[in-house]
Amino acid sequence: MANVYDIIIRPVITERSMAAVADKKYVFEVAPEAGKIEIKNAVEEIFGVKVAKVNTINYDGKAKRLGAGRPGRRKSWKKAYVQLTPDSKTIEMFEGMV
Known about the structure:
- This protein is α+β, with helices and mostly antiparallel strands and 98 residues long.
- The protein contains three helices and six strands; from the N terminus they run H-E-H-E-H-E-E-E-E.
- It has helices spanning 4-7, 15-20, 36-47, and strands spanning 8-11, 25-30, 51-59, 63-65, 71-73, 77-84.
- The strands form two sheets. A four-stranded antiparallel β-sheet has the order 1-2-6-3. The protein has a two-stranded antiparallel sheet with strand order 4-5.
- A hairpin with a 5-residue loop joins strand 4 and strand 5.
- The longest helix is centred in the middle third of the chain and has 12 residues, at 36-47.
- The model has no long low-confidence stretch (mean pLDDT 92).
């Protein structure tokens, strides 16, 4: 990966992910080819925090109909759960949403 902003695509904002913010756990959509170490380094560089642990999940795209019975698929994607260290600061982007 050339750029840290190519690794972290967007935050995942759901009711469940916002409940985890209190424990300093954040959820991001990441590039499918990114590894855990690359995700950790990208989050630390972008947000200026210390990452303790990264867990990832790969999602397959769902099969969908596109019009009159034509088959198609949604894109496959990867989600990363990022756990910060207890002494790390929080990510400000999530502060007003809790």
